[in-house]
Amino acid sequence: xxxxxxxxxxxxxxxxxxxxxxxxxxxxxxxxxxxxxxxxxxxxxxxxxxxxxxxxxxxxxxxxxxxxxxxxxxxxxxxxxxxxxxxxxxxxxxxxxxxxxxxxxxxxxxxxxxxxxxxxxxxxxxxxxxxxxxxxxxxxxxxxxxxxxxxxxxxxxxxxxxxxxxxxxxxxxxxxxxxxxxxxxxxxxxxxxxxxxxxxxxxxxxxxxxxxxxxxxxxxxxxxxxxxxxxxxxxxxxxxxxxxxxxxxxxxxxxxxxxxxxxxxxxxxxxxxxxxxxxxxxxxxxxxxxxxxxxxxxxxxxxxxxxxxxxxxxxxxxxxxxxxxxxxxxxxxxxxxxxxxxxxxxxxxxxxxxxxxxxxxxxxxxxxxxxxxxxxxxxxxxxxxxxxxxxxxxxxxxxxxxxxxxxxxxxxxxxxxxxxxxxxxxxxxxxxxxxxxxxxxxxxxxxxxxxxxxxxxxxxxxxxxxxxxxxxxxxxxxxxxxxxxxxxxxxxxxx
Length: 495
What we know:
By secondary structure, the protein is an alpha+beta fold. The protein has eleven helices and 31 strands. It has a seven-stranded antiparallel beta sheet. Strands 25, 26, 27, 28, 29, 30 and 31 form a seven-stranded antiparallel beta sheet that branches. It has a six-stranded antiparallel beta barrel with strand order 11-12-13-16-15-14. The chain is elongated. The protein starts with a strand and ends with a strand.
């Protein structure tokens, strides 16, 4: 499971053991340990002159940027526990050993108030100063639902912070404190990062102020569940609850990311951490400060990544690009001639290798501007110009799987045809709904209630048509399905 690095559930969610997850890094206010303001000498600096390789030295990064990293503590009102409930951390069993940890080191919830009165819950994250007059970047989940926000500098001064804007889609929040001549960080370019290069994080894990940790860039442009607008930077830098909103530095001392999430089965660091590219954060900040909101482009398509099976189905030389699984009626994409089964390989001359890159490129395009898409269709490339519109939310629809059906043994599907009124209710042009699943389709992940729209790039409207198409293949096919409001291609190995 992916979790953000601050207390989206006011610190608790980041430390409760999970079966499999990603966690936000929100932490406890409190104590100071390994302090970035007084770092230990680096091993590389002590290496002998005969060494051919030296470990990186992070002391300059700490000296120059430590004072620019701040603690962000938040509080909010929350209902008290029911009368007679044993005091402790909500969400943790009374005998959980983490209860003792919080008892010793300070728990995020304030003291119990009288019955029926609100108590104060607290959480702690990180942030960093980007302008000398007090503009600060942090994560949106750090300040979510906060009734009070306090920013603490390394010189122990504290300021009440005002929220200038929040963007939940990218998990970015912009704060302002009333101060002058503050030490601001240098902003770098995440696009120039290379996989394998050294990076460092400064933040307040578990409330230990100004702690520095280091590692390397493990991957770029990672797409995380429900996070299609952020091409995350993956690192093995140790980040934990309290690191949320803190900066990620390159070896030139420039901020190239904002630490946001970790991947963990335990709630603690397991070697996988994810940062929001600073290029994304700055663009969001500029929109929030100037307009009070973030304006994003949209073209009205649903997309998915291309794996080897899908690449084989569509005749691509290799798995690449973003596969269009649905086109919204009346959208800019439909008007431009895009259709389900097209694979987008590039936008405005920039190569697209996965869906997060396409989502980010379109979202970053201002509404009204044109985007030139390089598309793979019918075994060849072509350019399609699309006029970008403003992003709007899509509504969900339900699926229906009742009635008598017929079986496609080759696929392992029991299907029935939808009545015209059902298609109107489901807002789909699909003709077949899945009732039961077995065999190859079950292994591929098809579910009862899915509506079949197409096989490869051929629309399907009847069971007989589907059977006829299946007679012509004995290998991998890609079924375009609608599941609730979403569409996706599912490759099925039938050979």
